[in-house]
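Table 4 source record.
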Amino acid sequence: MMMTSRFRYILKYLFCAFLLVVVVCVGQVLYCVVEGTKGLKGIEFRDTPTETNTGDTTSQPPPPPSPSERIPRKIHQIWKTNDTSSYTIESSQPIWRSVYPDYEYKLWSDADIEELIRVNYPGIYSDYISYPYNIQRADIARYVLLYHEGGMYADLDAFPRQRIDPWLDAQSVLVRTADGNSISNHWFMTEKRSPLFAYLLASVHKHNIWVAVPYVRVFWSTGPFFMDKAVRDYKRDHPEYDLVAISAESTNSYVRHIAGRSWHGADAKFLNEVYDANYKTIAQFFGPLVLLVTLAIFVVRKRRIRREF
């Protein structure tokens, strides 16, 4: 009888401990989501008007460099090796080189990037090699490359439609998502040694935390949540920084992005289905509800244990 009571006590204790872990994990996920989805609220930036695609990107000769340009005429792309023939879909590499023949073009391999970070940015190297997902390293790689050399970054599934030379006079050019309140990192530009991107890289270590949901972990540690928060915090303290945030409509006139979501796991696919189906309000309600129900169960079980023992 004594053993049975002790066994029941141990099971209840373990159950309460499990609930506590669930509460902590759910709370952490909610914090990352709520903080990350604040997006660009309250941030002032130089806007751009919606443009109309002209269709032919090569009919006009490249404009000469302007003295006001702060962003170098460089294009950076990344892949596993220096040969994009193994890329699973059509690569945009030849299109970028054709539309921008006057720009310096660089294709960086995984080995190139790791060596660059190891030699020049040892402060984030341990974070870079510790990431469990390759997409996290790909995200950090693009920030490092543009901070190190400046210029333009484009995913291999992002295709140019028109030249973007008029924006080279800004300090940084970022792309807003369709709702206008967040930043996408498939294509962007910045000046060399940009203070904004310096702040971004300085934030790498504190964002490299374990989060229960892999999709949220990627977004918070290196992806859009990470970038949104860094931009929001930096612009709050440095309102004079010349940041262009292009609307999604205008961006689509200049760059066509085939969003493959190839790195997404089951959790990401589920969350995207929820979001794409316009159930965002339900998702926002469901998260806090789970947290409250879990917390209530934990409190009730704890009180029962105290009464019985």
